[in-house]
Amino acid sequence: MGRPVKEKSLTQQDVINAAIACLDQEGEAALGVNRVARELGIKPPAIYKHLDGNVALRRAVALTIWQQYIEWSRQQTNGLEDPQALLRAGGSATRDFARSYPHRYRVMTQFQLNLQDPETAPLIQEVFRFLKRVLQSYNLSETKLIDAMRMVNAAITGFITIEQAGLMTLERSTDASYEVMIDALVVAIQHIQKVDS
């Protein structure tokens, strides 16, 4: 990371950035106050002035990664209006983020967002806004919209999780299978639109 940050000029963002650098290099086991302090060239107590221990550190890192992911997805889908194109671009953006930053993706998806939490609620609302953009042309009721959102999220997250775990061992391109799944999601959303609640 370059020269160590002096303890007195250390900011919370410095700590988070160092933690993400450790995460990228070494995986989730590196998300600890002691490891991040070594990365910064400081003593661990200096971090406690900004984040109260490992749980707070992991939370701050997860929130930052969520913000990075949302911005990544926004850039990948900017200017698109067609719902199917949005779904494909959003699905590709999520998978590309997971491939580019596998440790970040795991930390992000293991962190539970809560609408009652003032720090995480805006992130959930941003994800909901995107999914509503994808699904708006289907004119779904609120119940059907929730079903469709859950299905899309479960399919994409599940595929990526299984892929990252190395469990897709059959001789078939995972890229091709992912494209088929996205196409199938379009058909499944149309099915949700037609069925009675």
UniProtKB/TrEMBL annotation:
Source species: Nostoc piscinale CENA21
Keyword Metal-binding: no
InterPro entries the record matches: Homeodomain-like_sf, HTH_TetR, MT1864/Rv1816-like_C, Tet_transcr_reg_TetR-rel_C_sf
Region forming the signal peptide: none
The keyword Electron transport is assigned to this record: no
The HTH tetR-type domain, residue ranges: 9-69
Keywords: DNA-binding, Transcription, Transcription regulation
Protein name: Transcriptional regulator
GO MF entries: DNA binding
Pfam family membership, one: TetR_C_33
Residue ranges for the DNA-binding region feature of this UniProt entry: 32-51
